[in-house]
Amino acid sequence: MGLRDLFVTASLPVLNVLLVTAVGSISATSRVAILGEIARKNLNNVVFYVFNPALNAVNLAQTITLERMLLLWFMPVNLFLNFVIGSALAWAIIHIFQAPARIRAVIFASCSAGNVGNLLLILVPAMCKEKGSPFGDPDICSKFGLSFASLSLAIGTILQWSYVFNIVRVTSSHAQDKTLATDSVSKVTSAQETISLLPEDYKDVMTSTRGCSTSAFPFNNAPLLPSKTEDFTTTTKVLLSSSKMSRFWRIFCGVIDLKKLFAPATVGVIIGFMIGVIPQLKKAMIGETAPLRAIQESATLLGNGTIPSLMLIMGGNLVKGMNSSGVKVSIIIGIIIIRYLALPLVGIGIVKGAIHLGMVHPDPLYRFILLLQYAVPPAMNITSMIQMFEAGEGELSVIFLWSYVVASAALTIWSTLFLWLVS
C-alpha cells in the first residue's frame, strides 16, 4: 500500500472531524447562538451521563472476552507512561520559559492529559471505513476499534481524575499560596506604615500589646486544662485517634476524587466487561437471537448519538479561545511541540520496544491505537479541573484553540506514519 493511499486514508477522517467541529463552532458564535454555553452544558451532560456509557457498554460487551482482556494489559501501562512523560516535559517547559505561577497548572494538564478517548471514538471508526485501510473488514474493524477506544477512554478518565487532577490541585494551590503570601506581606507593610503615622503614645500601646506578656494579663497563668486523670487520658486518646482517622479520610478524598474517578463512562466500561466476560450474560443480551437483545439495540441507538454530539461540543468550546486573555506565544509553541512532536516520537520508541519484547500482540489496529494515543490534543476534561481550582481558564481556552487548530494537520501526518508502521 502506497504512502499516498495511506495519507488519503488518514486525512479524510480528520477532515470529517474538522468539518463537523466547524459546524459546532459556527453554531456557538454570538451571531448564530444555537449552541450557546447553556446548550453546550446540557448537551455535554446528556453525552456524559447517557450516550457515552451506552456506547462503551455495548461495544465492549460485543467484542471483549476474558482472553482478549489479558491481551490488552499493555494499554494501561502505555497510557500511564504517556501521562508521566508529558508531565515531565511540562516541567521542562515551565522552567525554560519561566511560566507564571498562575498558569503552571494549565501547562501541566495540557501536556499530561491527551484526548485518548473521545477523539479516538471519532477517528478510528472513520478510518476503518476507508478503502485504503490496512485493518481488514470495515464492520469488524469498527466494532473492535470502538472497543479499544472505549477501553482507552475509561483508562484515560481514571488517570485524568487521579494523576492529572492531583497535579492541577497541588500546582494551583501552590500558586494561590504565593498570592496569599504576597497579599499578607503587603497588608503587614501597610499596617507598619499606619503605626508609624500614629502619635508616640499610641505606638507604645501597639508595640507593648503585640507581645501579650503574662504580667500584663494575670489570668493567662491559670491552667486551661483540668488535672491529669486516667479517664481524661483515655478520652483524649480516643479523640486524637478519631481526629486522625477523619483527617486521613479528608486527605484521601482530597487526593482522589472517587466520584469523578468512577465517571459514567467508566461504569459503562465495567458493565461492558461484565457482560463480555460472563458467557451467560453475553448469550442473553448480545446477538440477533438473544432473548434480551432489546437492551442491546436500545443502548446502540443511544450510543450512536455520542460521536456527532462530541464533535459539536468540541467545536463550541473552541470559540471561547477567540475572546480569552492572551498567553505567551513561546509557551503555546512549547506545548504544541510537546504534544505533536516529542510525545509521538517517544511513543513510537515505547510501542516499538514493547513489540520487540513481545509485550504487544500482533494486531495492527491495536498497535495503531497505542501509537495514536501519543499524538492527540489535550483532553477536554482539563476544562473542568481548571474551572474547579480557578487556575487560568482564559489561558486554557487560548491553548485549546491553537492546539486543536494544529491538531488537524498533526493528526493527519502522524496517522499516515502510524498506518505505514503497522501495515
UniProtKB/TrEMBL annotation:
<feature type="transmembrane region" description="Helical">
    <location>
        <begin position="70"/>
        <end position="93"/>
    </location>
</feature>
<feature type="transmembrane region" description="Helical">
    <location>
        <begin position="12"/>
        <end position="34"/>
    </location>
</feature>
<dbReference type="GO" id="GO:0009734">
    <property type="term" value="P:auxin-activated signaling pathway"/>
</dbReference>
<dbReference type="Pfam" id="PF03547">
    <property type="entry name" value="Mem_trans"/>
</dbReference>
<keyword id="KW-0472">Membrane</keyword>
<feature type="transmembrane region" description="Helical">
    <location>
        <begin position="46"/>
        <end position="64"/>
    </location>
</feature>
<feature type="transmembrane region" description="Helical">
    <location>
        <begin position="144"/>
        <end position="168"/>
    </location>
</feature>
<comment type="function">
    <text>Involved in cellular auxin homeostasis by regulating auxin metabolism. Regulates intracellular auxin accumulation at the endoplasmic reticulum and thus auxin availability for nuclear auxin signaling.</text>
</comment>
<keyword id="KW-0813">Transport</keyword>
<keyword id="KW-0927">Auxin signaling pathway</keyword>
<feature type="transmembrane region" description="Helical">
    <location>
        <begin position="398"/>
        <end position="422"/>
    </location>
</feature>
<keyword id="KW-0812">Transmembrane</keyword>
<feature type="transmembrane region" description="Helical">
    <location>
        <begin position="105"/>
        <end position="124"/>
    </location>
</feature>
<dbReference type="InterPro" id="IPR045033">
    <property type="entry name" value="PILS1/3/4/5/7"/>
</dbReference>
<keyword id="KW-1133">Transmembrane helix</keyword>
<feature type="transmembrane region" description="Helical">
    <location>
        <begin position="261"/>
        <end position="281"/>
    </location>
</feature>
<dbReference type="GO" id="GO:0080162">
    <property type="term" value="P:endoplasmic reticulum to cytosol auxin transport"/>
</dbReference>
<feature type="transmembrane region" description="Helical">
    <location>
        <begin position="331"/>
        <end position="359"/>
    </location>
</feature>
<protein>
    <submittedName>
        <fullName>Protein PIN-LIKES 3-like</fullName>
    </submittedName>
</protein>
<dbReference type="InterPro" id="IPR004776">
    <property type="entry name" value="Mem_transp_PIN-like"/>
</dbReference>
<dbReference type="GO" id="GO:0005789">
    <property type="term" value="C:endoplasmic reticulum membrane"/>
</dbReference>
<feature type="transmembrane region" description="Helical">
    <location>
        <begin position="365"/>
        <end position="386"/>
    </location>
</feature>
<comment type="similarity">
    <text>Belongs to the auxin efflux carrier (TC 2.A.69.2) family.</text>
</comment>
